[in-house]
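Hi V.,

You were right to ask for the full record rather than a summary. Here it is.
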Amino acid sequence: MLDRDRLLKISELDSDKIAQMDDNQFNSFAKTINDFIDGFPAQEADVKHALRNKNRGVLLESLIGICDMLKEINAVKLSNERLEQLSAMGNADFKDLQIFVINLLKSASALSIDLQMAECQDAGESQDEQKSLSKNNILVVDDRYFSLAFIKTMLNNTGYSVTCINSGVEAIEHLKSNCPDLFILDIEMPEMDGYQLARKIRESGHVAPIIFFTGSAKKDSVVRALEIGVADFIIKKSVNKSQLLERISKYIKPEISE
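Predicted structure:
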């Protein structure tokens, strides 16, 4: 079930139009969103294939198709911005087109994840009940030291206390004597992946929100994560400091020194 309140909080969408929809209009809009979620992976694959083959005609057609899909789900500003950028590029070489493609796919992929999370009202409500506005301890688990350093650096001097661990096994050991207020987990890790770790976190009695920090996420992975009790996703390649802080602040607030 699509949660209208969660949709209204997605900054890329036209919240005024969504708020004014009657039930029939909203139900139709929900179907459009599901069509976008289901159709985006194929569109993304077409774009990447055309880019690899340097097929400018197919590439432009596919990029315009994604922009049209964004407009249909009321991400009108994002769609128009990308279409204007594409038009201004004219006969740009494929190196410039590649940069544009990367940015567009990042934006659309991140939006797709937010929309998928908005489909699960019950899961969202259960995570809201777990919010703790007075605590700030974050456990980050990723097998890549670069990713750990990236998050650690972005959260430096922000009021959050960050612990970084590079394996699920070490994380489970850490949890025997520690109780984080938020988890940020990579999905693809050796020995114990993010799904397995998330399940063990829940089985061990920890109820703090879990955010997956991943390179990409498809619909089936989102559904699987929600079944475990994951609260949210952050796409590695698209996140910056302000986006990371905004996502984290949905669940916990930093302690501010007086």
